[in-house]
DNA sequence: TTGTAAGCGTTATCAG
DNA sequence: CTGATAACGCTTACAA
């Protein structure tokens, strides 16, 4: 591990000159440059990125924190952030938050100490007041879910409208008793989607019935049980709106075994190849990630510029077969 | 951004004392500790992780480089590395290499400059001689694919045996003309799986026919075309062995539309819910990632210990319906 | 128990 | 065009 000092000594110049060569400073004579480069090769010199980064006080890294990488929705966000970061010569420090809200703060704070250039987070909690001091120093962008008790850029999808339209779609197909499938209403996105579902019912003059809301459906057994209850004679739903992709995927085995009309929030791989193919309200995770990362870069470059805090992307209905079962 | 020096000044002590408080050094009087902690709160002091890291010369970070995060196989590897890293108080710097081999070197070298504690890589090239100097200083573990021209730890699955057994399974179901579906033979894993396929044919006294090997099938159009050719009267295969999950997923729409006996290398989400459900030879990406990360930690702790270079995990046949179509 | 000095590898500043 | 010096924030020796 040769250092710059050693290279300098070998080339008979000062460290600063080596630094200049490294950074393509034009104020170096060709001869000197030549000599320095030879020494670098000789000693197999590799700059210590840690030192540079420390010196500059800011790490050329964008942090990305999402609940879970296995979920293709978040994987797509991360990938998009990575691509956008790459375009700006930044790397990405990826961290999974897990689905347990109590971990969020610890994890984010430990990431933030690294003097990142920015942070993209798909949060798992509703209260981000603890980030206020951080947000003052480094740009933070929220994706998928809005920040709570904190002013920060947010890139969201139209949870309310999307859920409303997806539900209305089932109503248009003649359904009157429509179940709501979800994980937990603690997540603001899911709560929003429930609101959209209610609005669609109301608009059609249908009653909202708490008993038709089935939660804890993010696992296969959970989804199976939820669907069983919804289908039981006392509830007798003829259609289901699934409020997120994890639940939908968990429900797939049950739905393919005992078909029921289904519309789901969030697309997922192979949704179009199932029997029945699942009708979904498609989000755009890649756009979310890309926009968020781009915003961080922009905030870093123009700290005072005024920009909209909240960007809501539309969702689009992809009609397949499951809504017509 | 208060620094340690400022906290020290505010508390009327030396920076070293603040450092001691921070690191829970017992040689600090309770009174002093109290005073220092008060100042830290007052100034909202947060340690600069960059400085600590620089001073220690090594970043408490494990790098993870995989071709692509969207692929659930690699997402599972990354997640497992993350979990194992977390257990050792390390973070993870995740980078996608892309599927273009020419990017690998640049990306890995830029990651390695950061003085990582270790690197897990699922490579896209066959020649890793350029990593030799790095491998001497920081532990590098390969997953999924073995390193080329480099001595390094590798955690692999039984590509050869798994492909052989998956093909034999089709033969056992009475098939005599079996196609091989793949992306590119440049990947050593795929080449190995082709060998396994050949071995199974040979063991059954069946001829190997180059025309039954269909490549470039990692996209939906590619897979559709490959299957069309294999099925054409001049090839007339009655069964297909798909050599990797990306190809299998790409082939799904064609296979569900025009069923053909299929066995695939690599499991994937919802494979069991398709019609037909896909019979797969399941890998264990989580184990791959976990073992690799654990190995890095072990190498770092015991640089001289002798450990096996190559660990090959078994794959397991998950029989579903597609092999009996 | 606490402090002083020195340095990790790089770069900014300012002289020459 | 080149170099001396200092500094980034923290910690390891070594003293006191």
From TrEMBL, chains A, B:
PROSITE patterns: HTH_LACI_1 (PS00356), HTH_LACI_2 (PS50932). Pfam families: LacI, Peripla_BP_1. The keyword Transcription regulation applies. Coiled coil: none annotated. Keywords: DNA-binding, Transcription, Transcription regulation. SUPFAM superfamilies: lambda repressor-like DNA-binding domains, Periplasmic binding protein-like I. Residues 2-56 form the HTH lacI-type domain. InterPro entries: HTH_LacI (IPR000843), Lambda_DNA-bd_dom_sf (IPR010982), Peripla_BP/Lac1_sug-bd_dom (IPR001761), Peripla_BP_I (IPR028082). PANTHER family: HTH-TYPE TRANSCRIPTIONAL REGULATOR GALS, LACI-RELATED TRANSCRIPTIONAL REPRESSOR. This is LacI family transcriptional regulator. It comes from Herbiconiux gentiana.
């Amino acid at each position: 591990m040769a250092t710059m000092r050693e290279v300098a000594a070998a080339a008979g110049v000062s460290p600063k000159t080596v630094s200049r060569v490294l950074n393509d400073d034009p104020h170096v004579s060709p001869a000197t440059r030549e000599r320095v480069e030879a020494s670098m090769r000789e000693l197999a010199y590799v700059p210590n990125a840690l030192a540079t980064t420390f010196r500059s006080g800011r790490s050329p890294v964008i942090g990305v924190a999402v609940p879970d990488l296995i979920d293709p929705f978040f994987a797509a966000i991360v990938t998009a952030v990575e691509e956008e970061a790459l375009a700006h010569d930044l790397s990405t420090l990826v961290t999974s938050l897990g689905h347990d809200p109590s971990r969020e703060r610890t994890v984010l704070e430990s990431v933030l100490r690294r003097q990142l250039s920015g942070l993209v987070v798909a949060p798992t909690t509703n209260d981000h007041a603890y980030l206020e001091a951080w947000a003052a120093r480094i740009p933070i962008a929220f994706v998928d879910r809005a920040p709570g008790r904190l002013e920060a850029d947010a890139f969201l999808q139209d949870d309310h409208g999307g859920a409303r339209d997806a539900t209305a779609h089932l109503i248009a197909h003649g359904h009157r008793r429509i179940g709501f499938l979800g994980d937990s209403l603690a997540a603001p996105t899911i709560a929003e989607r429930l609101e959209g579902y209610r609005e669609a019912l109301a608009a059609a003059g249908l009653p909202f019935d708490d008993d038709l809301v089935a939660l804890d459906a993010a696992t296969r057994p959970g989804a199976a049980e939820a669907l069983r209850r919804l289908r039981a004679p006392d509830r007798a739903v003829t259609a289901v709106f699934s409020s997120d992709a994890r639940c939908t995927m968990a429900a797939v085995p049950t739905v393919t075994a005992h078909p029921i009309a289904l519309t789901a929030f969030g697309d997922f791989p192979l949704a179009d190849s199932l029997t029945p193919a699942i009708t979904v309200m498609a989000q755009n995770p890649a756009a979310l990630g890309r926009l968020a990362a781009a915003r961080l870069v922009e905030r870093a470059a123009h700290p005072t510029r005024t920009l909209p805090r909240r960007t809501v992307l539309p969702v689009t209905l992809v009609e397949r077969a499951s809504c017509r079962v």
